Amino acid sequence: MYHNPVLLKESIEGLNIGPGGVYVDVTYGGGGHSQEILKKLTQGRLIGFDQDHDALTNKIDDERLILVNHNFRFLKNFLKYHNALPVDGILADLGVSSHQFDVAERGFSLRFPGKLDLRMNRNQKVTAAMLLNEYDRDKLVNIFRQYGELPNAGAIASAIIKFRSAGRLINFEDLKQALSHFPTPGRENKFYARVLQALRIEINQELDALKDFLEQAPEVLKAGGRLVVISYHSLEDRLVKNFFRSGNFKGIPEKDFFGNVRTPFKIINKKPIVPNEGEISANNRSRSAKLRIAEKLINQ
């Protein structure tokens, strides 16, 4: 399977799909969520986005579906191009797809001795190897501290600089060798997962793209339309939670002249929805997923 969709039932229910509506799946991947959306549509339309060219091989043969091979940060432009504004609902599953984890050459998984790549869009130039070999120490420290939330980011950056003075980092084994004395015994995978997360976020500009996408969502949604987002780590979830609550990424509510909080959304679920034990058992990659649902306010 290309990708096992996470929180499938809960996310589709969260969209509150009308049979004639226009919906957007901004993280098409294997098409699992999109397929369920299409089942609930009659004369409606679905616009899918995925920057990974591999996802195009999974395009569902359905005339109601348009699949856009671009990053979802260009949401508004492409919806306008396809005459799909405004829309009734948007779904975003921010996780790395099972396909990307399982193909060794993509470099997303700890299980393979593959090259340090980590690009979501393989047409872009910068890979993890290029970043590790060319960024100066200050940049590396910032990446590991900000995106990996690693307390020893300075020492990690110094170790990489020292290793590459004798030779380039090319594959994951080189990275493990450079950082071999950092992981706590028995928790190696957790440490390297944070390192790869930091590199992946930087290479793909994931948080900037997420911010761009969230800011456009209220503009493209109809009043009463739903925004459903599944996140997988605290950096993503914090941005989503704050934006849903306050319309900004600091999470500080702004008030109008009358003292009313200015936010484009009504929050549907106060606490995030998480996978149950059965789903986690069947798909371990779902264990960190958090689902948040918001509805665009009528007066926005």
Task: Tell me what you see in this structure.
This protein is α/β, with parallel strands linked by helices and 300 residues long. The chain starts with 7 loop residues before the first helix and ends with a strand. The longest helix is centred in the middle third of the chain and has 17 residues, at 188-204. It is 38% helix and 15% strand. The protein has helices at 8-15, 32-39, 75-81, 98-102, 128-134, 137-146, 153-164, 172-178, 188-204, 206-220, 234-246, 277-282, and strands at residues 22-25, 45-49, 65-68, 87-93, 221-231, 254-255, 261-262, 265-267, 290-296. The chain has 2 domains: 8-98 and 206-296, Vaccinia Virus protein VP39 (Rossmann fold, 3-Layer(aba) Sandwich), CATH 3.40.50; 104-204, Putative methyltransferase TM0872, insert domain (DNA polymerase, domain 1, Orthogonal Bundle).
Helices, strands, pairings?
Blueprint (H helix, E strand, L loop, with lengths): L7 H8 L6 E4 L6 H8 L5 E5 L15 E4 L6 H7 L5 E7 L4 H5 L25 H7 L2 H10 L6 H12 L7 H7 L9 H17 L1 H15 E11 L2 H13 L7 E2 L5 E2 L2 E3 L9 H6 L7 E7 L4
Parallel strand pairs: 1-2, 1-4, 2-3, 4-5
Antiparallel strand pairs: 5-9, 6-7, 8-9
Helix pairs in contact: 6-7, 6-9, 10-11
